[in-house]
Structure formats: C-alpha cells, structure tokens
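COURSE: Structural Biology Practicum
ASSIGNMENT: Worksheet 4, Part C
STUDENT ID: 0417
INSTRUCTIONS: Below are two proteins. For each, the amino acid sequence is given first, followed by its structure token string. Answer the questions at the end about the second protein only.

PROTEIN I
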Amino acid sequence: MDVERFKTIEGRVERTIKIERSEFIATLSYAETDEDARTFISEISKKYKDATHNCPAYRILTVNGIVEFSSDAGEPSGTAGVPMLNVLRREGLLNVAVVVTRYFGGVKLGIRGLIEAYSRSVEEVVRYAKELGQIIVKKRAYKQKLKIDFPSYGKKMQQLAYMGVNILDISYDEHYAYVEVLTESSLDLPEVIETAEVYVRE
C-alpha cells in the first residue's frame, strides 16, 4: 500500500454526549499497530466495564495495506461498529482506534437512532481532537544507517549536510563510523547498510 501521508491523532481524546438519556463516551487514541489498538480497546472496556456496551473500531496502516476492524459489541448488527468505522474513513484517519461506551438511559433509540448516535459520538470526538490541535499529518520518510570508513568520513558528512539529511545518531568501531539518518527520499549511496520506511510528523 503506497501511502505518502495520512492524518492521525496525537495522544488520546475523550468526549461525552447525551442522546435520549443514554450517555455515549467516545475515546479516540493513536495506535501504531493492530496489537496497540486491541490493547487500547481492552483497556477502555475494563475502565468502563459497568457500561451497557463498549463498541470499538480501528484503522491501522501496515506493510500489507490498511487493516480495519469494528464490532457492534452486543448492539443490533450494523448499528455501531460500521457507522463508527465509516466516520474514521470519511475523516481519512489512520493508525487510530476508537471505543464508544454506552450507558443505557432507559429509552430505546431504534436501528436508525443507534446508527446516528454512534456516528455522532465519533464525529464529536474527532471534532474535539481537531479543536485541541491533536489531529496531525504524518508523512513518509526513510531511516537509514550508513557505514563510513574514517578516510571518507569528513567528506561524506559534508555531503550529507549539503543534502539536508537529519542525522539521528553516530557510533564508531575501530574502522568505521555508523551514521543513522532520517531523509525525505531514500539515499542511494554505497555506504547505506540499512533502510526502513517510517512516518514522521509533517
């Protein structure tokens, strides 16, 4: 999956709304991996274990593409998880997980009412995260390690500075310097011994 940049959340945000006496608490969090998302969902479900429902959804960018998950968690089929996921899709958010916790207030909302309530809960928490400046853009970059012999070291470091790369770390052994860099485009140099694709804040 070739994703150049994407929107995500920094940290975690919670927002509560009331609809027909039911309380809906939406918690939106950054999640780097599928496992992070599941850990977050489990944590929120434990935090609100006395709730009527804890409905999750997430979208994670992996090397094989975008992994999506949602669950109605006991609500009628199709009324919670997919509507929540659709908001994340519409907002173009990736590496995010959301749980909407519902405390039933005694008034049944019906199928359409539930779809609207769960959608609105996620819309509200995303809007609130935007207000707080926590919706950010991440762009693709390359983390690379170069192995440079000492006779070439000075000249090579000058070249890297001229290219505008960000030097993260330098270590040495008897014969070589190992330089870790972060670049916008992958360096095609004979000294490169490791390359990893990463996403950094724009």
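PROTEIN II
(use this one for the questions)
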Amino acid sequence: MGCVLSIVLLAGCTTTSTISSVERERYLASFIGQSSQAIQAELNLSKLGYQRTSPVEVSSDYLRYRVARPISIPLPMAENPAIGMGSGAAVPIPSGNTRYEVELNCLIQFRLKHNIATDVQLTGRTC
C-alpha cells in the first residue's frame, strides 16, 4: 500500500514547465558562444519553469542565475474506514489547502572568457 501511495503522490506533483531535463540542458547549451549581454537579453527562465530568486550576478568570469522551480504536491485524502479498503471513497480533510507548495532551488552558471560563454553548469539536485 505504501508503494502505491508513493507512486500516486509522485504522479500528482505538478510544476510550471513540462520541459525535460535533456531539453533544458540543450536550451541552456544553445547560449554557449554568445556574449553575456546576449544571454541576459534572450534567456527565458520561465520557458524552463524557473523564477529568478535574486538579481543576475555578473563578473568577468561568470554569469550566474539563482532560480527556483515552484511545484505543487497534492495532499493525500484519508480513506473512509466505515466503507472499507479499496472502495475509493475519501473523507474530506477539514483544511483549506489541498496542495503543498514548495520551491526547488537551482544555480545556473555560464562560464565566461572574454565576455563569451564557454560552458554552462547547473548546480542543485532540483535542476
């Protein structure tokens, strides 16, 4: 029963983007070879499902974005013990929230050489 509940909870998580990690990495890699000004002008973080959490950090060596991806996790409903297991009936939980909202943090860093991106790295388990 615990495995089934885990699968249901994982399947119920929603994010603001449906882009895969491969597509996300391909999109970010497309900025390699561009200037830091072009990256700042053209990078669309919302396309990746991210929201910037602080201003862009710029130095001669890097361009750094601290971002978060909001996700919504549905709260499980208790089964009605009077009806029995597997009946599918749920007892409403007396609460206003039916979802748990969290933000998963990530660091996107473009390495620069002579103001041109030479590499991009994503740091964080949730990138």
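ANSWER KEY EXCERPT:
Q1: The chain has one domain: 12-75+97-123.
Q2: The chain has a mean pLDDT of 79.
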